[in-house]
Amino acid sequence: MTDVTATHQEDSQAEDRVRRVELAISSLLRIGVLTSLLVVLAGTVVTFVHHPHYLSSRHDLVPLTKPGAEFPHTVPSVIRGLEHSQGRAIVMAGLLLLIATPVLRVAISVLAFVYQRDRTFVVITTVVLALLLTSFVLGRGGG
Q1: What is the pLDDT of residue 56?
Q2: What gap in Å lies between CA 92 and CA 100, rounded to an integer?
Q3: Is residue 143 part of a domain?
Q4: pLDDT tens across 72-115, in order?
Q5: Is 141 exposed, middle or buried (0-12, 13-18, 19+ CB in 10 A)?
Q6: Is 72 exposed, middle or buried (0-12, 13-18, 19+ CB in 10 A)?
Q7: CB contact at 8 A, 63 and 71
Q8: 59, 41, 42, 61: which is closest to 51 by C-alpha?
Q9: What's the N-to-C CA distance of the chain in angstroms?
Q10: The total number of structural domains that make up the chain
Q11: By the 8 A CB rule, do 88 and 71 touch?
Q12: In whole angstroms, what is the distance from residue 6 CA to residue 14 CA?
């Protein structure tokens, strides 16, 4: 085999690897967003099934829609709400899935760069992932 043929074959294999990684990441993002949308819709339906008066009474709906309305704000409270089939907890689980989707994309990118043997981007992406995870651990919501 000539050097030109070997180089062309290596380039082709590298391009194939990059393409597979891009397709995997694209699928991950698409599936994550669609799943979170379906979970939020399911939570909305469950809320109105458990509280049908929300559909007919504006007065009853106000506490649900006003600023500062009571929703589960922590992962343990979402889990407790899911155990009791609470619509608000299901909606929050969908939103958590939506937030987790790009974070998972960064984690998959670390593996993708390992697969592609790109050490520089492995380090950079690992730092980005560590910063994201640190921000979740140290950050807190408040108003």
Answers
A1: 80
A2: 12
A3: no
A4: 888 889 999 999 999 999 999 999 999 999 999 999 999 888 88
A5: exposed
A6: buried
A7: no
A8: 61
A9: 67
A10: 1
A11: yes
A12: 12
Closest-CA residue to 105 (of 77, 129, 121)? 129
For residue 26, is it within any domain? yes
Spell out the residues 6+ positions from residue 96 whose beta carbon is closer than 8 angstroms to its own.
Answer: 75, 78
CA distance 114 to 120: 10
Compute the radius of gyration of the chain from its Cα atoms: 22
Which comes out higher in pLDDT, residue 61 or 34? 34
DSSP string, 94-140: HHHHHHHHHHHHHHHHHHHHHHTT-HHHHHHHHHHHHHHHHHHHH--
Q: Which domain holds residue 109?
A: 3-138
Do the domain assignments include residue 38?
yes
pLDDT at 115: 82
Neighbours of 81 (CB within 10 A): 20
| 20: nearest Cα among 112, 119, 99, 131 | 112
Q: Is the CB of residue 101 less than 8 Å from the CB of residue 29?
A: yes
pTM: 0.77
Q: Do residues 89 and 40 lie in contact, with contact meaning Cβ atoms separated by under 8 Å?
A: no
Q: What is the spatial distance between Cα 113 and Cα 9, in angstroms, rounded to a whole number?
A: 20
